[in-house]
Every structure is written in C-alpha cells, then in structure tokens.
C-alpha cells in the first residue's frame, strides 16, 4: 500500500480522479494504482470525500467508474440514478416483507 493513513488514501484517491464523465476510472484500477488489495478501502475513501464536499460520481453506466463531476448536469444525472436505486430497493424491501409474512407468519417478529 502506498498510503499510510486514511487521510493519505483519501488524498491519493482524489489525486487519481479525473474531472468529467469521460475521465471515469474503475474502482479496480484505482485500487491497483494505489496498491490496495481490493476496492473496499477505495470505496470508503470515496464516501469520505463525498462527505467532505467533493462531488465524486460513481457511474454504473459507460464509462464505468469514479470521477469528479465537471458540472451540475453530471451531478443531476447521478442523483437521478441514485433515486432510481432507492425506489428499487424500497420495492424489494416491501415485497420481501410481504413474502416473509406470507411464509413465516407467526415465526418472525419485525423490529421497529
């Protein structure tokens, strides 16, 4: 690993990120460049960068990877994609709750 601390890793990740969608870099490549064994620490560093106010985008459509948003449009596109995921997860949660109740009624207690 090239970095000594979480702050060093955050800075190293930030230095690797290009500006704009065309500069997206896959997480695996980021990990390789920074000599990390896997992408977990990279993802955590990216989350911390976002929490610090950097507009880091993770694109799930080509070009795949992470980049710094170049404009508000790139942010809006990613926010729309994230909202779509949230809705999908909420539907899945609701359907699984129904299926669980149907199949395991009386056996499960749902925590509040």
Question: How would you describe the overall organization of this protein?
Answer:
This is Putative DNA binding, helix-turn-helix domain containing protein. It comes from viral metagenome. Strands 1-2 form a two-stranded antiparallel sheet. The protein is mainly alpha-helical and about 110 residues long. A hairpin with a 5-residue loop joins strand 1 and strand 2. The mean pLDDT is about 90. Helix 1 (about 5-15) crosses helix 3 (about 40-50). It folds into two domains: about 1-70, Winged helix-like DNA-binding domain superfamily/Winged helix DNA-binding domain (Arc Repressor Mutant, subunit A); about 70-110, no CATH class. It has four helices and two strands. It is extended and about 55 Å long.
| Parts with pLDDT < 50 across at least 5 consecutive residues | none
Radius of gyration: 18 Å
* Main sheet makeup: 2 strands, antiparallel
Would you list the SSEs in sequence order as H and E? HHHEEH
Q: SS-based structural class?
A: mainly alpha
Question: Number of DSSP strands?
Answer: 2
Taking the alpha carbons of the first and last residues, their distance comes to 42 Å
Helix content: 55-70%
CATH class of the largest domain: Mainly Alpha
CATH topology title of the largest domain = Arc Repressor Mutant, subunit A
CATH architecture of the largest domain: Orthogonal Bundle
> What do the pLDDT scores average to?
92
CATH superfamily of the largest domain: Winged helix-like DNA-binding domain superfamily/Winged helix DNA-binding domain
Tell me the number of helical segments per DSSP (H or I, 4 or more residues long).
Answer: 4
Query: What is the number of domains?
Result: 2
Strand order, main sheet: write it out.
1-2
Shape: extended
Strand content: 5-15%
Organism: viral metagenome
Protein name: Putative DNA binding, helix-turn-helix domain containing protein
